[in-house]
Amino acid sequence: MRKKIVAGNWKMNTTVPEGIALAKAVAEKAAQTPEKVDLIVAAPFTHLALLAPVLEGSKVQLSAQNCADHTSGAYTGEVSVDMLKSTGCTWTILGHSERRQYYGETDEKLVEKTRLALEAGLDVILCVGENLSEREAGEHFHVVTDQISSVLFHFSAEQMKHIVVAYEPVWAIGTGKTATAQQAEEIHACIREVLGSHFGLQVAEDTTILYGGSCKPSNAAELFAQKDIDGGLIGGASLKADDFIAIAMAWQSV
Ligand code: PGA
Fold first, then answer.
1. What's the CA-to-centroid distance between 94 and ligand 1, angstroms?
2. Which residues, given as ranges, of the chain have pLDDT below 70?
3. CB of 231 closer than 6 A to ligand 1?
4. Is residue 8 in contact with ligand 1, taking CB distance under 6 Å?
5. Of all protein residues, whose CA lies closest to atom 2 belonging to ligand 1?
6. CB of 170 closer than 6 A to ligand 1?
7. What CATH number should be reported for the domain holding residue 178?
8. Dist. CA 251–CA 254, nearest whole Å
9. What pLDDT is recorded for position 177?
10. Half-sphere exposure of 25 (CA within 13 A, CB side)
11. How far is the CA of 216 from the centre of ligand 1 (A)?
């Protein structure tokens, strides 16, 4: 059975004290959530070392939102996978559309970052998704298939055990416009098929695929009820502990 995950992407939000308070609140409430769902919070770099002890002993795992594409050295402003690992975090998000769009993150860079993260022992949430003009041109299946194959086909079936895919249609991120459960499901099914064609049925069946883009307590259950949707990557709604936990609770009814 593949893992069910609800992950919060805090993005560039919260000061350190605010982040600690939010993590505390999430950790306290996490015990109420169904056992089958894993919880992750992806916090800013500055918070990670301080959040690790706050989350210890709870079911909430800690993630970064990005990592450097080099191991160490003269790369001012970058944060390496070993640095991340040394904070106590165990995951990193890679390839978020905001990084692709604003920071020139290419599939080539993502191959390198994913390789470094896995080698350091970090698990990866790899984000993919089409933008509005690609969706309107009917290219969404093609765009997502291409993003998946360009990055993930560089890795082995064994390495895929440490990679989660997040499908996030760019037009649904932070806009309040959620993809319908059916729109999300058909892309998730397509991603699973693409993984199956390359890695075989077992990897396709075992890979957790999350939906992200205006996921909230009111629509989570319908999304999570879809056959190929294994949880959510939550932006805005992860900044309120009650909303984030309510989204995780949606697994109770599924
Ligand atoms: P959102 O963001 O939930 O605020 O739409 C999701 C994401 O970008 O990960």
1. 14
2. none
3. no
4. no
5. 235
6. no
7. 3.20.20.70
8. 5
9. 85
10. 15
11. 10
pLDDT given for residue 125 in this prediction: 99
**pLDDT value at residue 176:** 86
The structural domain count of the chain equals 1
Q: Which domain range does residue 99 map to?
A: 4-253
Distance between CA atoms of residues 152 and 194, nearest Å:
10
Amino acid letter, 124: V
Q: Which amino acid is at 224?
A: F
Ligand 1 within 6 A of 236 CB? yes
Ligand 1 site, residue 232, Cβ cutoff 6 A? no
Catalogue the active-site residues: 96, 168
Mean pLDDT, the chain, rounded, equals 97
91: exposed, middle or buried (Cβ count in 10 Å: 0-12, 13-18, 19+) = buried
Q: Calculate how far, in angstroms, residue 197's C-alpha sits from the geometric centre of ligand 1.
A: 29
